[in-house]
Design goal:
56% helix, Butyryl-CoA Dehydrogenase, subunit A, domain 3, tight junction, 13% strand, 5 strands, membrane, single chain, 4 helices, alpha+beta, 5-stranded antiparallel beta sheet
Length: 169
């Protein structure tokens, strides 16, 4: 059985991972326009996220447009949204369950077996939440790679990995 210090370290790392998944979900830089063609225009940067697409001008002005219709989105984006939200909600549940099972908490102090079970269940829920986020980011990243190397995609319409995708990974 782990000591309280290792348990607290594991909880802090899992909590930071949960915060990272929230940040990754909220940021609009999941894919960034690739300047792969002959016509390189660096006066603007185009990027897309799970919830909106944005254009950033070289003057510092940023314009974002929220995706209007849920039904108009492709299936990869819809599945990625769902998995990210599920991962965040499971992480929230895991925080509450793992907190109850931690040795430094007074809750369930009289029943050590039940306290240990709560800690293990919280850890398993954290792992499931992390897997949901990993599957979502890997699937979305794979889709970016497929579209980038697709010969039917015009050179001036290709995207690369964005910062939010790296945060999610």
């Amino acid at each position: 059985m782990a000591n309280a210090g290792l348990q607290l370290l594991g909880f802090i790392l899992a909590f930071l991972g949960w915060i990272g998944s929230i940040i990754s979900t909220a940021l609009p830089q999941w894919k960034i326009y690739s300047y792969a063609g002959d016509n390189i225009v660096t006066a603007q940067a185009i990027y897309e996220g799970l919830w909106m697409s944005c254009v950033s001008q070289s003057t510092g002005q940023i314009q974002c447009k929220v995706f209007d219709s849920l039904l108009n989105l492709n299936s990869t984006l819809q599945a990625t949204r769902a998995l990210m939200v599920i991962g965040i909600l499971l992480g929230l549940i895991a925080i509450f369950v793992a907190t109850i099972g931690m040795k430094c908490m007074k809750c369930l102090e009289d029943d050590e077996v039940q306290k240990m079970r709560m800690a293990v269940i919280g850890g398993v829920i954290f792992l499931i939440a992390g897997l949901a986020v990993l599957v979502a980011t890997a699937w979305y990243g794979n889709r970016i790679v497929q579209e980038f190397y697709d010969p039917m995609t015009p050179v001036n319409a290709r995207y690369e990995f964005g910062q939010a995708l790296f945060t999610g990974w």
